[in-house]
Amino acid sequence: MSSLNTIIFSLLGGILPALLWLWFWLKEDRLHPEPKTRILLVFVAGMVSVFVVLPFEKFVYSLTLSSISLITIILWAITEEVFKFITAYFTALKNKVADEPIDAVIYMITAALGFSALENTLFLFNLIDTGLFSESIITGNSRFLGATLLHVASSATIGVMIALAFYKRPLIKKVFLCTGIAMSVLLHTVFNLLILKVQDDLFFVFTGVWVLIVLLIVMIEKIKDVRS
């Protein structure tokens, strides 16, 4: 397959599923939808952040003597979750467009889906470029149901904590934010550990992620009722 076709198929396989999930989550904010241009900015910024995260993760890998240990996995999770938050913060959360609690969740999910879109694209590119086209289809489907939703669940956890503290004092907001980041890192770390340990039963891992998504939907409904 030519390089151009490889790039096109990789982009389609990585970005289209993420956009489908984005469409699904944006419906949770139907009453006061966010500006489409801002959503696009956050999504693209989430994609770009992958190029910042990868060098950090390679550096972490070298520090841990080029072995995937528990410390490596934790540091990778911290890097990804912190950068996804930074992306959402500077492109939307610090802006006046984030004017209600639910907005924090929407923008964190958008940044996470942008990040996941390019991450999935790179995974698929490596497979397709080596002639493993059928394997890329399987990988794309599994990441659509697993890794992509893990990014959503972990980043949305930060958004949920920001939302719950939306009308509280600055100190309380910082405590909730730090708690949200810690929880997101924990979820991300556990998922990655399970992927490594239970490779023959990914259905078990994906079921756990789907439970998190159901809980997220429940929390979003509660956040809609948060008032000043």
From TrEMBL:
The keyword DNA damage does not apply. InterPro entries: Peptidase_PrsW_arch/bac, PrsW. It holds the Pfam family PrsW-protease. It is found in: Cell membrane. This is Protease PrsW. The chain crosses the membrane at residues 6-26, 38-56, 68-92, 104-128, 148-167, 174-196, 202-220. Belongs to the protease PrsW family. The lineage of its organism: Bacteria, Candidatus Zambryskiibacteriota. GO terms for molecular function: peptidase activity. It comes from the Bacteria.
